[in-house]
Structure formats: structure tokens, C-alpha cells
Specification:
With about 140 residues, the chain is of the alpha/beta class. Strands 2-1-5-6-7 form a 5-stranded parallel beta sheet, with helices on both faces. It has a two-stranded antiparallel ribbon with strand order 3-4. It is built from 5 helices and 7 strands; from the N terminus they run αβαββββαβαβα.
Amino acid sequence: MDLAREILATWRTWAVVGLSADPARDSYHVASLLRDRGCRIVPVNPHLTSWRGEDAYPDLASIPFPIEIVDLFRRSSQVGPHVDEAIAVGAKAVWMQLGVRDAEAAARARAAGLLVVEDRCPAIELRRIDALERDQKR
């Protein structure tokens, strides 16, 4: 099983760093899709107080319960500190969105035992998984 598929099949609590309240933004769309698929979305954005009824937090350390996946909607140059936060709070995985890569931060996460996905979108991966499953049923 590929790593993205394993993460999507295994864990349900996603801390979405950089989640926007603007429905036109990719972060809003992807988080909504994950939520519609039964995932718990934890908004992480210091400029939000809530998102679709969920309390928002300024950073990962402020979340008062365990999170499993840290989904990063940040520029590549800004993900390092968020990856370090993910390690510190005991996340299971870090997911960097399309176009987002940081080899050093990814290496730190892997060394700490986290699974890491770079430069991929969970919405695209879910559509791919759905298509594969439909094909297998035929």
C-alpha cells in the first residue's frame, strides 16, 4: 500500500495548518472534503477562532487533545517549524500539500518516527483511491 493511501486509511484527526475560512481557497476545499469523509478537522490558524463549527487554534501546541496528521498549507520555506511542532506534539504523520517540499524537515520527521508525504493533495489521492476501488469491483 502506498504511503498516502495508508495515512488516509489509518488516521482520522487532521490538524490543518493554514486553513482558511474562504471557501475559494484550496485549504477550505480539502478540509471540507476530508470532513465530509468522516475525518475530524482541527483548524490551525492564528487568524481564525473557528471553522465550520470547529474551534481553531493558533498553533499545534495549543490543541488540547491528540492529533494524528498535520496537513501543511504553507509555503515550503515555512513548513520547518510546523514539522518540528508536529514532532513535539506526537503527531503520527505530516502531509505537505502540492508544491510543498522541505527535505530537511521531512528527514527530521522521519527520524522522529512520523510518516511523511510531500507535494501531494489528499483530495486528489482520495479520488485516485475511489477510482481504483471502482475498477477493482468491475
